[in-house]
């Protein structure tokens, strides 16, 4: 490992940057880091994060667990490398004439897509700022979308955190709903329409004074879509966040 970074970076982060020398001696059919991480991702995509273990990953590659530990010292390091690997997504070039809103909207939608494609991604706790290369590439993408805005570096990072937090929460909710559908749950049960009649009896104006009218109107269970001027809830939320950022920018310009 490069001595310059040895005392400064966690082992898994150093591995992600290629700063750790890989074993030169070992089984005849030598492994490599990418094979191990890809195998772990395949297991997680199929059976969830709980199914990933050093033993199971090693077995899927035809090696012993001890062989794996020569490449990746711990399961935590493996999870970090898995997380970074699935963040290696295509980043489109910014086209001339696109607005900052369009650029940031594309960024958020792509981040949500990671949760949809890899449902386990959100099960890995956030333990620090992004430190691995593909994760940092995503941060760079978000910042690039703000190049023309009159924001300082701290403001840009706060906007990036706000948008990535929304992408994370939205991605995890959409992931959960998708898994519910795949498990056989009806859309009408997910939206609550199957229980609408019961809710209209149980949600009384005395106990739920503000929720009552929403339930009675059908908005709570998406019954009355003719009057719905919101459209997709997640897109609506994103647009309101972008509105807030735009308002903040205009206030700065007018100072």
UniProtKB/TrEMBL annotation:
InterPro entries listed in its UniProt record: Homeodomain-like_sf, HTH-type_TetR-like_transc_reg, HTH_TetR, Repressor_TetR_C, Tet_transcr_reg_TetR-rel_C_sf
Protein name: TetR/AcrR family transcriptional regulator
Residue ranges for the DNA-binding region feature of this UniProt entry: 53-72
Boundaries of every HTH tetR-type domain copy: 30-90
Domain of life: Bacteria
Gene3D superfamilies the record matches: Homeodomain-like, Tetracycline Repressor, domain 2
Organism of derivation: Heyndrickxia vini
UniProt keyword terms in alphabetical order: DNA-binding, Transcription, Transcription regulation
Signal peptide: none
